[in-house]
Amino acid sequence: LCCISSLIGSVIPSRFHKAGSLWWEEPQRRPLSDQHGPRDYMGSAAREVQEGKGSQRYDLPGGVNVLVCRGDITKVNADALVNAANGYLDHGGGVAAALSHAGGPEVQRESHALVRNYGKYATGDTVMTTGGHLQCKKLIHIVGPVQGEANGRERQLLTRSVGSVLKLADENKFQSIAIPCISSGIFKVPISLCAEAIVTAVSDFGSQSQHLKTITLIDTREEVVKALKVAMCEFWLHYPQTLSSSP
Predict the structure, then answer these.
(1) Three-state SS across the chain?
(2) Residue 210: which region, alpha, beta or left (left: phi > 0; alpha: psi -120 to 50)?
(3) What is the rounded CA–CA span in Å between residue 69 and residue 173?
(4) Which of 30, 74, 90, 233 is most buried, by the most CB atoms less than 10 A from its CB?
(5) CB atoms within 10 A of CB 168
(6) Macro domain: which residues (predicted)?
(7) What is the band of 36 on the pLDDT scale with cuts at 50, 70, 90?
(8) What's the mean pLDDT in 28-55?
């Protein structure tokens, strides 16, 4: 066994790194542009993903910056905040309750008015309301899929839904948006599936953006943030791009 381990070590160059089940090749030690904050290399980024520490920033084609971090979305200052809503826009639990409470009674009042006028919203629907006291111009509500109620199409529906949210924000000329890990809480869709779906939508949108320049993927749960980082790194493996980290 020792001989086999030694042989593997001699075959795989030291520039290759492993975090969990992921392998990638570390690029040449070229410092990142100063405009992207502290200088860093792919090796240290890999360690952060493995340990689930810190925030991570990714620069997508088209000039869109994606920040993955652990935190409270109700404290984020962005043009749009995204709420994981149910079809009745009844913000009684999870991130929906937190955003509604922080935004004040006008958020729930306007949401109920929309349902009275247009009926229950279906999975994948998006709608905007006031953000109330939140630090945003608008609160965008998205009805994510519920585990076991989408005939195995949870990932497809969530990817499409997040894409619709980003398109809506861009059409309204918003420059920044913060998105939680939709459907991974009360709706019980597996965290890894949600992370992959959200990152797919974000990465697909990058080259299409006209106005939206900053996308923050944020959650209070460490395991969710780690899953989002891993999903972003998997995308990075297929589409190499500048990556930097900040404390």
Answers:
(1) CHHHHHHHHHHCCCCEEEECCEEEECCCCCCCCHHHCCCCCHHHHHHHHHHCCCEEEEEECCCEEEEEEECCHHHCCCCEEEEEECCCCCCCCHHHHHHHHHHCHHHHHHHHHHHHHHCCCCCCCEEEECCCCCCCCEEEEEECCCCCCCCCCHHHHHHHHHHHHHHHHHHCCCCEEEECCCCCCCCCCCHHHHHHHHHHHHHHHHHHCCCCCEEEEEECCHHHHHHHHHHHHHHHHHCCCCEEEEC
(2) alpha
(3) 24
(4) 233
(5) 19
(6) 53-236
(7) very low
(8) 39
For the stretch 180-192, pLDDT in tens is 999 988 888 899 9
C-alpha distances (whole Å) from 121 to each of 108, 118, 145, 201, 229 are 15, 8, 12, 21, 31
- Note whether 104 and 131 are within 8 A (CB): no
Which tokens belong to 217? Answer: 């993927």
Find tokens 């076991």 and name the residue. Answer: 148
Q: Per this entry, what is the length of the chain?
A: 247
Residue recorded with tokens 């500048």? 242
Between 222-238 and 42-51, two packed helices, what is the crossing angle to 10 degrees?
150
Write the single-letter amino acid at 13: P
Cα radius of gyration rounded to whole Å, the chain? 19
CB 56 within 8 Å of CB 229: yes
